[in-house]
Amino acid sequence: MNLEPSYWPLAAVLISLLGVVPILLSDRRPNLREAWTVLISLGKFTIIAALLPAVLEGGGYRITLAEVLPGVAIALRVDAMGMYFALVASFLWILTSIYSIGYMRALDEHDQTRYYASFAVAMSATVGVAFSANLLTLYLFYEMLSLSTYPLVTHKQDAEARSAGRKYLTYLLGTSVAFTLPAMILIYTLTGTLDFTAGGILAGKADASTVSLLLVLLVFGFAKAAVMPFHGWLPAAMVAPTPVSSFLHGVAVVKVGVFSILRMVFFVFGTGLLADLNLGVVLTTLASITVLVASLVALTQDNLKRRLAYSTIGQLSYMILGAGMLTAAGMTGGLLHLSMHAFGKITLFLCAGAIYIAAHKSNISEMDGLGRRMPVTYGAFFLASLSIIGMPPLGGFLSKWSLVVGAIDGGQLLLVAVVLVSSMLNAAYFFPIVYRGFFARAADGNGGEEIREAPLLCLIPLSITALFCLALFLWPSVLLQLIQMVVSS
Questions:
Q1: Quick one: average pLDDT of 12-24?
Q2: 211 class by beta-carbon count within 10 Å (0-12 exposed, 13-18 middle, 19+ buried)
Q3: 3-state secondary structure the chain
Q4: Are the C-beta atoms of residues 279 and 336 closer than 8 Å to each other?
Q5: pLDDT recorded at residue 248
Q6: Domain coordinates in residue numbering, the chain
Q7: How far is CA 445 from the centre of its chain?
């Protein structure tokens, strides 16, 4: 890969970080503050999209900011895998920003300036993770994301929010310091580098037991991926405002966790080494347990956001499951599910927020008949549900089909069963929500004329993300091209 020296990767990271300044200065002018937020999100996506053609042609960009140790620098690079993640995250941030305006205004939320500023910092950290050139740089941005999203999780500033915030930081900072940091030190000791390298850097540098230990440390150390048993922070964080939940699940935090693990699989361990040592089974076992258990727990949740949270825990591990298959189709399916789930799950959370704004309902048992009063919101919810379940003609079908093909190619028929059974469980916890909304008799207060769709600034983003669930089934070519570049490398 020919990486051209350039400041553009740094610009893509810094634009939202520097944008915090005008957001803070516009504290007493809400319209200007929100305009800055949208403009910054548009600018970030524009910069990232401008870097795409060079990556598709097999090139990329790189910038070294500081040499920390011999062979280790704080550096950024734009390659196919980083571009894939950054493109999805930055696009969805635009829609989340627009939705936030409608949501925060409709509920007259407090501390909105802090909210938008924290969002901007978090998006800098997210793109920083995507464009990290090595494990040290990724680790620094990963920690920056944990700290910058803490004010978002604790936005309500009540006892429940503060308790959720403590759990959030304990899990995410605790695991990264206890597991990821020692693994990083050991990798540097063994190899003398932390650079992400196609095919990995550990082959011939460590025995099987050491590689196994490093794999487990990094899977659990990147706890944003919510692999069980380090998943408890995610349902607790649902106390945050709904745009934050959508950001956690669709745009940034959990996807950063999975992206980090996948980055390790492809560029630190190397799929060849994992196959030689038969360590793919470690990934598939941990992922299968998480997929099935989380799906079963989701069935028991009456609170809509908590049901979606447990759904996310399971869906994230589909991505790890695909990587662990160590087949071309399986790895393609795992990577593809990152974007398909992102668009589907952000739609579901945006719909949950719209329902709360319009009807002030958060429990599924209280939502009978709401679909007839809010057809756009429930229609979008239905489309996104089909995508997450994996039904055609929605994007989630492509990723799950690839996972099934990958499992068959690897002779791992048990994993075929995991994907199929878990998909049926997905249907079991999504379809009743849609059925109750459209067909169940309206409960008291749900059939009145006073219940209408949420504000337009909420409806437009969730409609766009729902339509993308369909569009990505029909036109996935750009994303697939980036994924195939990663897998083939």
A1: 95
A2: buried
A3: CEEEECCHHHHHHHHHHHCHHHHHHCCCCHHHHHHHHHHHHHHHHHHHHHHHHHHHCCEEEEEEEEEEECCEEEEEEECHHHHHHHHHHHHHHHHHHHHHHHHHHHCCCCCHHHHHHHHHHHHHHHHHHHCECEHHHHHHHHHHHHHHHHHHHCCCCCHHHHHHHHHHHHHHHHHHHHHHHHHHHHHHHHHCCCECCCCCCCCCCCCHHHHHHHHHHHHHHCHHHCCCCCCCHHHHHHHCCHHHHHHHHHHCHHHHHHHHHHHHHHHHHCHHHHHHCCCHHHHHHHHHHHHHHHHHHHHCCCEHHHHHHHHHHHHHHHHHHHHHHCCHHHHHHHHHHHHHHHHHHHHHHHHHHHHHHHHCCCEHHHCCCHHHHCHHHHHHHHHHHHHHHCCCCCHHHHHHHHHHHHHHHCCCHHHHHHHHHHHHHHHHHHHHHHHHHHCCCCCCCCCCCCCCCCCHHHHHHHHHHHHHHHHHHHCCHHHHHHHHHHHHC
A4: no
A5: 67
A6: 279-489
A7: 35
Residue 77 near residue 62, CB atoms below 8 Å: yes
Give every CB contact of residue 211 below 8 A, 6+ residues apart in sequence. Answer: 202, 269, 273, 277, 279
Dig out the tokens for 189 from the structure. 């000791």
Compute the C-alpha angle 15/18/24, nearest 5°. 130
**Would you say 438 and 378 are in contact if contact means Cβ atoms under 8 Å apart?**
yes
Dihedral sign for Cα 431, 433, 438, 440, please: positive
Which is higher by pLDDT, 160 or 275?
275
Tokens of 446: 């749900």
Unique residue bearing structure tokens 């894939």: 84
pLDDT higher than 60, residue 401? yes
pLDDT of residue 238: 77
pLDDT band at 443 (very low <50, low <70, confident <90, very high): low
Q: Work out the number of other CB atoms within 10 angstroms of the CB of residue 66.
A: 9
Q: How far apart are CA 383 and CA 470, in angstroms?
A: 8
Average pLDDT rounded to a whole number, residues 249-261 = 86
What backbone torsions phi and psi does residue 303 show, to the nearest 5 degrees? Answer: -70, 125
* Entry pTM: 0.94
Computed from CA positions of residues 200, 204, 208, 213, in that sequence, does the dihedral angle turn out positive or negative? negative
Count CA atoms within 13 Å of residue 167 on its CB side.
17
What is the C-alpha separation between 462 and 165, in angstroms, rounded? 27
